[in-house]
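Lay summary. Proteins are chains of building blocks that fold into shapes, and those shapes determine what they do. In this project we predict the shape from the chain. Here is one chain we studied, written as its sequence of building blocks.
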Amino acid sequence: MAHTTVNEFLKKKNVNITVKTYLIDALGAMAFGLFASLLIGTIFGTLGEKTQIPLFNTIAEYCKSATGAALGVSIAHALKAPQLVLFSAATVGIAGNALGGPVGALVSTVIAAEAGKLVSKETRIDILVTPGVTIISGVLIAQFVGPGVSAFMTAFGNLVKTATEMQPFFMGILVSALIGIALTLPISSAAICIMLSLDGLAGGAATAGCCAQMIGFAVLSFHENGVGGLLAQGLGTSMLQMGNIVKNPRIWLPPTLASMVTGPVATCLFRMENIPAGSGMGTCGLVGPIGIYTAMEGGSRMWLGILLVCFLLPAILTWIFGKILFRLQWIHPGDLKLDL
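And here is the predicted shape, written in a compact code that computers can read:
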């Protein structure tokens, strides 16, 4: 009886304790928070640095300073938090991001938002209780968990980056394939790369994998989705194909195989680098290439690398692999159709 009562209360408060809620919905929402603050700030910062227009640098500083608040609000919104919890999550996000980076913001905001939802509108002084519980619980979690989480993510990210420097060929394949797959899955490759501070050669490999998925699916499905599908996937997200992948997982092979080629090309041939904010974005809004430009600061080698690794090779390789799978009848007409 007590168990049923607890479940009913949680349902009434819209508290869904599932992996999907916390590792897919919340993590996916982080990408929007990051894009609306850190990522767009990085773009403005690059514009300000190259054009010497002070306004761009000013905007970049404000955008980057708002990262924690944007993360808190975006995560709380994904958890369907009521208004007072949602607004209080800005403070929690700032504390979590300052003490534990994006992962600290994720953990502290998730716990704070759920705690806030439990007490929301349960008292006559809701205006004090709900934000109080949300902020206190969130800041305490940030202080308790943040430093450890930050240290772990930094250490793991450094391990990946060091391994990529030591074994650029094999790690180029691995990082490119895995981050590219993460980009197409309903999670955030951008958030993962920022959490791990994935820059340098590892960032270049990650970018190669993301571009292979986006450009690859855009070209592979062009005959079914036309120019609209080309732009939606090539400049938007390959996540649009997730429903079709569930129906026929084999359609994922061509862009993934392409990423396993472009990854080592990026690390070994062009020594391509990126910044964490651009590593997991691919060609979405051209943030990936802009990040490469920010990290490598120009040069003909860099521009050739961007052209080949981010655009031409993914398109050509995915088209070739796709043709093979179509002939093997592993992929059929209509398998890549999107409802646009």
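What the prediction tells us: Residues 167-327 form one domain.
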